Automatic annotation (TrEMBL), chain B:
Keyword Zinc listed: no
Designated name of the protein: Sulfate adenylyltransferase subunit 1
Gene name per UniProt: cysN
Protein family (similarity comment): Belongs to the TRAFAC class translation factor GTPase superfamily. Classic translation factor GTPase family. CysN/NodQ subfamily.
Enzyme nomenclature, EC number: 2.7.7.4
Amino acid sequence: MTDVIHAAEPRPASSTKPPLDPHLKALENEAIHIFREVAAEFERPVMLYSIGKDSSVLLHLARKAFHPGRVPFPLLHVDTGWKFKEMIRFRDEIARKYELDLVVHTNARGKAENVTPFTHGSALYTDIMKTEALRQALDAGKYDAAFGGARRDEEASRAKERIYSFRTPDHRWDPRNQRPELWNVYNGMVRKGESVRAFPLSNWTEVDIWRYIQAEDIPLVPLYFAAERPFVERDGMMIHAEDPRLERLPGETVQHDFIRFRTLGCFPLTGAIRSRATTLDEVIAELEIATVSERQGRAIDRDQSGSMEKKKREGYF
Amino acid sequence: MTASATAAAVHPAADAVAVTRDLRPLRLITCGSVDDGKSTLIGRLLWDTKAVKEDQAATLRRDSGQQNDLGLPDFALLLDGLQAEREQGITIDVAYRYFATDRRSFIVADTPGHEQYTRNMATGASTADLAVLLVDARTGLLEQTRRHATIASLMGIKQFVLAVNKFDLVGYDQAIFDAISHDFRELALSLGVRQITAIPMSALKGENVVYPAGAVMLWYDGPTLVETLELATVRSAQAGGFRLPVQRVSRPGESFRGYQGTVAGGSVKPGDSVVILPSGMIANVKQIVTFDLVRNAAVAGDAITLVLDRQVDVSRGDMIVSLDAQPMTGLEFEAQIVALQPDGIEPGKRYWLKSGSRRQRVSVKPLSQLELSSGSWRSHADRLAMNAIGKVRLSFDEPAIFDTYDQNRSTGAFILIDPDTHNTIAGGMIAAKRSGGIGIRYEGERVVLSLPADLADQIMASELFANRRDEADVRRMTSAQATELFQNAASDI
C-alpha cells in the first residue's frame, strides 16, 4: 500500500478557491511549522481529537502539514460515552474518509462503576471520564507528544501556556516553571516518561477558527448549525434532549426551537444557544457581535474560579 | 452568567460579516514599571475592542468584587490568569492576549514589570514587531524605561510606541508630554530605533487608547494607540537570500522526496539554484508542493515542501539556501545572549544549541556583559547570572549555519538547552562569524583562486569539495571586485 495521497492528482476543486488572506495564512503557516517540528522531534506523537470545530481545524492542518504523505501519527479520541450521537457518527466518517489511524479510549473503570454526569456531578465525572481517561490512554500508547487544539484566547490560564507545554511523567503541568519559548525555536528535549502537549492553534481566536473553516471548506458536525431541536432548560443552560438517557427532572418539559452549539462536549454538560444561523456566513455574523464567550456554554469551567487551571495541572487537556 | 445571557437569542447583524484581515497579525510587547498601569492599558484595549465577553467580565466582577472608578471590571485580573498570580497580585509570566479591529488583529505579549523582567521581556520581545513602552506622566522616564527600551532594541524591535499614561493626572498638560517625549526620542535614537510614536493617554479613562481623547486634549492631533498599531509594519525577512531550514524529509513513496520546512528568508521559485548546507551540494528547485496546489513561488513565512531536481543527501537540520546569497558557515561565532535560568551560563560548559531545526553541541565563552542602567558593555569572562545579557563566543564541533540577527531574525536566532535539565537556559542572537581573517583557522599554505561562477559551482558540487567544505572560504563577487582584490593582494607582497 502506498502512503501517497493524491500525489500527482490535480485538485480541480481548489483551483477556484481564493487564496487565504494574509492573517489566516500566517496562522496556518505557524501551525504547520509546529506540526512538522513535533513530528520530527518526538518518537510517538498522537493527536487528541475531540470531534469539535477546533479539532476539525487541527486535523485539516495536520493533513496539510504532511501532504503528500499521510498524517504520520494516530488520532486519539477520549470517549466519555456521553457525546452527542452526531459527533460519533461524524468521527467515524472522517476517520474512514481520510484513512486515519483512530484510537478510541473510554475509562473502563468509570464505565464499570457507571460514572455519569448525573450521578457524580460534572466535576467528578469530568475528572474520571476525561482527565483520568486521557492519562490512561496516553500511558497506554506511550506517547511522548500529544497535539491539542487549545487556544490561548479560550481561558485565562491558557493565555500563559507555551506552544510546547511540558508535562511530568504523571502528566502534571507546572505553570510556574514553564520553559521559556523564544521565536519559533521549540525545545523538544524530554526524558523517558516525560512528554509535551503541543498546541498548534495557540494563537488562533474563535473568529479565526470559523473564518478558516469557511475559507478551507472544512466539514463540521451539523450541531454547530441551527436546526429545530428538542431541548430542556436546566441550570440556565439549554440541554439537547435527544438521548433517552437524559431523564427529565420535575418541572422540566421538552421544548423545540431553532438552536445550535458553539462548542461541543458531553451533551448533558453543553448548553445550546437559540439561533437561526444555518450557514457559516450566518454563524460568523453571529460571532462578530456575540457578547458572551464560547466557553460560557461549558458547565465544567464554571465549577469554581481557576477550575480550568486546576484541571490542567492534574492532566486535563 | 445568567440564564438570560444563555437563552438570549443572538441576532446576526448584516454589516458585521464584512470583517476582513488584509494584514498579517501585528505582534507587540507591552513594557512598563509596576505601577505604570500596564495591565489596565491592555484591559482597556481588550475591552474597547470588545475582545472581552460579558461572561468573562462577570467572572471578573465575581472574583474581584471590586471595580474601578468607571464601574468596569478590574482589568488586571483578566491578564493575571494563574491562581498564584491572583493570590499574590502580581504577574509572573508572559501572557498572550488577542484583540482585533476591523483593519487588523493583534497578538500582545504582556510581560511582568517586576525584577525578573529581563528574561520574560526577552521571551515576549523575541516575536514582537513593536514595543509599547509605558510611563507614568507624573514621573516621566525611569531607569526601568531605559532597561526595557534597551532589551527591546537588542531583541530586534525597530518600532517603539511611548505611552505617556495617567495623563489625566497631570491636567493634560502639553508641556509635560513634550518634555517626556523629547527625552524618549533621545533614548530611542541612541539605541538606533527611528520609528517612534509618543501618545498622551489615560488607559483608565480610555483616552487615546482606542477612542480619541477629544476635548480634554485638543492640542493633540496625533494618532490613538490603536491607530498607530494598525499602521505599524510587520517584520519580514523577504529581502535577503532564500533560507529553508529543513524540518523533515517527506518520503511517502518511492517516487516522491520533498524537504519540508518554513521559509526563513528570501523567496524561491522553480528553477532556482540552491545549496544544501553544511554539505555544500548544489541542486535546482523542481517544485514547490503545498496541499492546495503546486506553487509558482514561496516567500518568507510560508510552510512548504520543496522538491529538488536531483538526488542529494538532505536531512533534518540542514539548510537549503540560495546559491548567490548564502549564510555564514563556521565553527566560531559571536553572539549576544540572555540568561534565562537561575544557574546562569557557565563558561566552557557544553550546551545544546537549537536554531531553526538544527541542534548541535556548543561551548560558550562570555566576553562582556551589558550594564542595563547605563547601556554600556563591561568586560566579563565569568558565569553569566540569570537575567544577564552578555556578548559571548560560541564554539562548535561541527559547522554551524547562521545569518546575523540584524539580517535575519530567524536564522540569526537560537536557544541554548542545558543537557542535564533539558531546560531552555538562554536565548541568543548572532552578531558575527568570528573572522580573524580568511584562512586563519587553518595550518599550512593556502591558495586563492578566482574562477567563473559556473565553474566554481561545479567544483563545489563535487564530492571531494563537499567533504572538505568547512576548510574552504568562498566569497562571491563581481569580476571587477575580484580584479581589485588580486591587485591589492599583489601590491601587498
